[in-house]
Amino acid sequence: MTAFQADFQPTREAALALDAGDELAPYRDQFCLPQTDGQPVVYLCGHSLGLQPKIVREYIDEELQDWAMLGVEGHFNARRPWLSYHETLTAQTARLVGAKPAEVVVMNSLTVNMHLMLVSFYRPTPARFKILIEADAFPSDRYAAESHLKWHGYDPQDALLTLQPRPGEAAVRQEDIAALLRREGETIALIWLGGVNYYTGQVFDMADITAIGHAQGCVVGFDLAHAAGNIILQLHDWDVDCAVWCSYKYLNAGPGAAAGCFVHERYANRPDLPRLAGWWGHNKDTRFQMPADFDPIAGAEGWQISNPPIFQLAALRASMDLFDRAGMTRLRAKSERLTGYLDYLIRDRDLPGVTRITSDDPAQRGAQLSLHIKEHGRALHQRLTDAHIICDWREPDVIRVAPVPLYNTFVDVLTFANALEAAHREVLVSSLSSS
Ligand SMILES: *Cc1c(COP(=O)(O)O)cnc(C)c1O
């Protein structure tokens, strides 16, 4: 349960004092803050697209200059040679997700990486062929999982298992996951869940799910799109088999950013695993001898296919430098307070028909609260937008709000709560007068 926070008050003075006491507050100034109609917005959409770090321009410009000056020689002679550019991200990425350096690589985009992992880690047998996903999995994950089932000749009707919350509940209970795995685990080839559910904001107990899944003989992978840069991850210690994430949400690397991938070190030297191969995954010592036989690099890098997009990697590097400086431990501590303050204010306003579907337990949520809006949710969201608040609307009836610890303030959260209350009143009045 949310611990009582003595300094939480629903006033501007209190919010200002909370910001004044926040050691991470200076990071806000490292970001470009968007405007609408010349007015600064309150940006609470970092779960969808993170803001641009100001330094990104400089990092990308360095690569533009090197390309202009060096042409193809930039592969070897750029300030950060493009040939090994992705390696400049390895140590930071490993720290971010709790992995060993050889277990991570930045490449492609998220769904592409998911496909690459499914090729290697969904290995159905006649007795064990099912994939378990969340009932409200992100559509791309569902499509990808179904496409692999069909590719192997299975009907998703029989082979796609979904994790359902109990009737009337939004989150899936950990004991229900354990029960399902004990009941059906022997038929499940692959467990594939979001680390943080994109819709409800539920944080799954990845360590526990991995342990129970392994005990049942399942392979366990996670989509960390909403977890990377949001919550503390310990992928190696949790013994997760594989994971993927994107870098444009909490990681602030810009639209279409290069994504991440984790493969546990026990698979580092498994050239026998089926995989979709490309030259960038080939042994670096012999890659340019253009040999006919594919010899994968040991570790996650062996799953690379193409030479990577340097400008996207430059943007990610700029953001990862900020993450490294702020540190996930401090970010997570602030995040719990910031989301806690939002939760406190929503309770304080107690608006009829507005209910939080994200857990009230800080351990079971990240920087996001999903609010179920019983009636006129779209109109309510539109009024928030008109009031220069950027949060997002998810069909059929949910507003997602993400106070991001790197750049959001306690005043942002208070401004949102005030705007929500005003919008709620206006929508209610206009619906009464039109009926
Ligand atoms: C954002 C998100 C995606 C988006 O996939 P892309 O391949 O990056 O377009 C997929 N899955 C989940 C769970 C997401 O949250």
From TrEMBL:
Pathway: Cofactor biosynthesis; NAD(+) biosynthesis; quinolinate from L-kynurenine: step 2/3; Amino-acid degradation; L-kynurenine degradation; L-alanine and anthranilate from L-kynurenine: step 1/1. Belongs to the kynureninase family. It catalyses: L-kynurenine + H2O = anthranilate + L-alanine + H(+); 3-hydroxy-L-kynurenine + H2O = 3-hydroxyanthranilate + L-alanine + H(+). The lineage of its organism: Bacteria, Pseudomonadati, Nitrospinota/Tectimicrobiota group, Candidatus Tectimicrobiota, Candidatus Entotheonellia. Pyridoxal 5'-phosphate binds at residues 110-111, 138-141, 223, 226, 248, 279, 307. GO terms for cellular component: cytoplasm. Homodimer. It comes from Entotheonella factor. Pfam families: KYNU_C. It comes from the Bacteria. The keyword Hydrolase applies. GO terms for biological process: anthranilate metabolic process; L-kynurenine catabolic process; L-tryptophan catabolic process to kynurenine; NAD+ biosynthetic process; quinolinate biosynthetic process. The modification N6-(pyridoxal phosphate)lysine is found at residue 249. Its cofactor is pyridoxal 5'-phosphate. Gene3D superfamilies: Aspartate Aminotransferase, domain 1, Type I PLP-dependent aspartate aminotransferase-like (Major domain). The keyword Transferase does not apply. This is Kynureninase. The gene is kynU. Catalyzes the cleavage of L-kynurenine (L-Kyn) and L-3-hydroxykynurenine (L-3OHKyn) into anthranilic acid (AA) and 3-hydroxyanthranilic acid (3-OHAA), respectively. Its EC number is 3.7.1.3. HAMAP family: Kynureninase. One of its GO terms (molecular function) is kynureninase activity.
